[in-house]
Write a structure and sequence with these properties.
By secondary structure, the protein is an alpha/beta fold. It is built from 11 helices and 6 strands. Helix 4 links the parallel strand 2 and strand 3. The chain binds iron/sulfur cluster (SF4). Iron/sulfur cluster binds next to helix 6.
């Protein structure tokens, strides 16, 4: 049995108020919550912890001795990821360490002190990696074109390279269920392929294992958790880029479906984990040419079986 299989997502489910750092417990607005609101907060935190724990088990994301580099952008998702992993770490049956890494891309107005202040207040090991990808992106992207694709590629390259430098064995990203579904539809609509974002993957150069422990979590839960935890969010629009319109459209489409048909996103996510290659049309995934041979084999085994019953 793999070490990761011993992760118990419910191990900490009973104790909730002790899961935040002392600094946060004294400073977070959660303290101002009335009893009912606190119960809701506790339920939300348990749910996130349970979902992250299950994703870790299901995909064997974290093993004994892993050094997990949590990529921290300053957005709600990565703060939540770090906090929930810290929660699980305290009671996990496997030992692993966490190191937070922020890539300072030198965007104008980036508040450099926010993340170091926060990380020091919660006592997490961290690095701020400085790379001026902002200038590269501005220089290379034609006027009016969206900068996100190149920016993301450069960011990924910098972070993966740094993970190697600091000996991180896993790189954890804060993508959640909706990110995965949006990517699925974007690839279908614009890329002509049926692929999303896997919960665990080997980077193209084979050097890094990337994990997405929030894969089972709803974006709305994460947003609510981030609000209640009062994370010091750094806005994502400092680069001045136009938001990715295609993604925005898909996001709204999914939100609308969920509004009209509650549970649809859950069902779609389940579909991503439950693929039937013989019911699709990818010749690489399923041997359609071999169906005749398969039929012959089945017929032959039936005839053999009939012969056997006759003999009896
Ligand atoms: S919004 Fe700005 S910082 Fe974010 S990926 Fe796009 S270009 Fe990069």
């Amino acid at each position: 049995m793999q070490d990761a299989m011993m992760f118990d997502p419910l191990a900490t489910a009973g104790s909730v108020n002790d899961t935040r750092s002392e600094a946060q417990q004294t400073a977070a607005p959660g303290d101002a919550l009335d009893a009912k609101a606190r119960r809701e907060f506790n339920k939300l935190q348990k749910r996130l912890r349970r979902q992250v724990g299950h994703a870790i088990i299901d995909y064997g994301m974290i093993h004994e001795g892993d050094r997990v580099m949590v990529c921290l952008s300053g957005g709600k998702d990565s703060y939540t990821l770090l906090e929930i992993l810290r929660n699980l770490q305290r009671n996990a049956p496997v030992n692993f360490s966490l190191v937070a890494v922020n890539l300072d891309q030198k965007q104008p107005g980036f508040p450099e002190h926010v993340l170091p202040d926060y990380l020091e207040s919660i006592g997490v090991d961290y690095h701020i990696l400085e790379r001026d990808t902002y200038s590269v992106v501005k220089e290379k992207t034609p006027e009016g074109k969206t900068t996100c694709a190149l920016c993301s590629r450069l960011r990924r390259g910098s972070l993966y390279g740094f993970a190697e430098e600091i000996g991180a064995t896993k790189v954890a990203l804060g993508h959640h269920r909706e990110d995965i579904l949006e990517t699925l539809f974007l690839n279908m609509f614009y890329g002509g392929s049926l692929k999303a974002m896997p919960p665990k993957l080997l980077s193209d150069d084979g050097k890094n294992i990337v994990i997405r422990p929030l894969a089972y979590c709803r974006e709305a839960d994460i947003a609510e958790y981030a609000r209640l935890m009062a994370f010091p969010i750094i806005p994502c629009n400092l680069c001045g880029s136009q938001p990715n319109l295609q993604r925005q459209v898909v996001k709204e489409m999914l939100a609308e479906w969920e509004r009209k048909h509650p549970g649809r996103l859950e069902s779609m996510f389940k579909a991503v984990t439950n693929v039937a290659p013989s019911q699709l049309a990818d010749r690489e995934l399923f041997d359609f040419e071999g169906l005749e041979a398969k039929r012959e084999k089945r017929l032959a085994s039936r005839i053999d079986a009939l012969d056997l019953t006759r003999d009896v």
